């Protein structure tokens, strides 16, 4: 189960475009049994760079998916915890109990957190009723 996500996250990371930070990130999520992945894509206009999580979410939405069931993120040797913006993007399609696994470049799980732990008292789609 998580093994496929780990494999795909590592594969995505190998395609990252990160010439400025040199920090390559990959993410892979499962939605209705289908795995979607993404990598960070930086830009010479620095603020326009996009995160790996955003790429995986865009792939899921393009395929018609709306619910993230589990996600794996891989960056460097320390757990690559999603940035604040990505936590909010995950909230759009993930329930508070969504498991976010952070793995090492070797594929070992370093840290697992729920989305609620990463983004407590989140503002989400429910607020707009
Ligand atoms: O969870 C994260 C954290 C960082 N990055 C990217 C953004 C930027 O390209 C590089 C350095 O911050 O890593 C991600 O893609 N996901
Ligand atoms: Zn991010």
Automatic annotation (TrEMBL):
A Pfam family: dCMP_cyt_deam_1
Reactions this protein catalyses: 2'-deoxycytidine + H2O + H(+) = 2'-deoxyuridine + NH4(+); cytidine + H2O + H(+) = uridine + NH4(+)
Keyword set, alphabetical order: Hydrolase, Metal-binding, Zinc
Enzyme class at the top of the EC tree: hydrolase
GO molecular function: cytidine deaminase activity; identical protein binding; zinc ion binding
Names of required cofactors: Zn(2+)
EC code(s) of this entry: 3.5.4.5
UniProt: substrate binding residues: 40-46
Protein name: Cytidine deaminase
Gene giving rise to this polypeptide: cdd
């Amino acid at each position: 189960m998580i093994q496929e996500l780990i494999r795909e996250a590592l594969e995505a990371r190998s395609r990252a475009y990160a010439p400025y930070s040199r920090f390559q990130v990959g993410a892979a999520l499962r939605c209705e049994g289908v795995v979607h992945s993404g990598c960070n894509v930086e830009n010479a206009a620095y603020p326009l760079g996009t995160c790996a999580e955003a790429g995986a979410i865009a792939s899921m939405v393009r395929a018609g998916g709306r619910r993230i069931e589990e996600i794996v993120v891989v960056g460097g040797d320390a757990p690559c915890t999603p940035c604040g913006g990505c936590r909010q993007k995950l909230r759009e399609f993930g329930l508070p109990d969504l498991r976010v696994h952070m793995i090492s470049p070797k594929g070992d799980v370093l840290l697992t957190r729920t989305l609620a732990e990463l983004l407590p008292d989140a503002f989400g789609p429910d607020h707009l009723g």
